[in-house]
């Protein structure tokens, strides 16, 4: 279920202007912004009671240039008429991101933290907000390719470094001589 491919900023709102970037992103078009007076880059997107109840993961690409200097990063979903205080779930994006720059995230709905007195209604998603604490006014954060899915690809296994073989030792082993 595609929530927003983030190819334009028409349906988005926040504290600072958005820029549709066309280079250095995970797809052809992605959106960036800089921080507000509180120090956060804020991306908000309204929906008209979208039913996400049949899905396990929220997929999103998030750009955080330096995880060590990001003061916070949360992605929130709300089902309360655009009120993020009640009927909201959220993820600490910094707990899922594993590298500076672009991170492709599959956020499990089952692991979302509940916010507010009432339960989030997955049959009535009406607001998504991503905010990233940035260190200065020139640093930008980004978002791309927002959709719901039931499949999460397995991460690539880490490439283990193998040391080069010592040709002298290998020759010695082949001819049976002692080292």
Structure notes:
The protein is mostly beta strands. The protein is built from 2 helices and 12 strands, in the order ββββββββαββββα. It has helices at 93-96, 167-174; strands spanning 2-4, 12-13, 19-21, 30-34, 40-50, 57-64, 73-78, 88-92, 101-108, 113-115, 125-133, 140-149. The strands form 2 sheets. Strands 1, 3, 4, 6, 9 and 12 form a 6-stranded antiparallel sheet that branches. Strands 2-5-11-7-8-10 form a 6-stranded antiparallel sheet. The longest helix is centred in the C-terminal third of the chain and has 8 residues, at 167-174. The protein starts with a strand and ends in a 5-residue tail after the last helix.
Pick out its properties.
single chain, 179 residues, mainly beta, 2 helices, globular
Topology, please?
Blueprint: E1 2-4, E2 12-13, E3 19-21, E4 30-34, E5 40-50, E6 57-64, E7 73-78, E8 88-92, H1 93-96, E9 101-108, E10 113-115, E11 125-133, E12 140-149, H2 167-174
Antiparallel strand pairs: 1-12, 2-5, 3-4, 4-12, 5-11, 6-9, 6-12, 7-8, 7-11, 8-10
Summarize, please.
The mean pLDDT is 89.
Query: What structural class do you assign from the helix and strand content?
Result: mainly beta
Element order: H for helix, E for strand: EEEEEEEEHEEEEH
Tally the helices: what do you get?
Answer: 2
What is the overall pLDDT average? 89
Poorly predicted tracts of residues: none
The helix content, as a percent range, equals under 10%
The rounded Rg comes to 22 Å
* Gap between N and C termini: 63 Å
Instruction: Tell me, briefly, the overall form.
Output: globular
Largest beta sheet, briefly? 6 strands, antiparallel
Percent of residues in beta strands: 35-45%
Tell me the total number of β-strands: 12
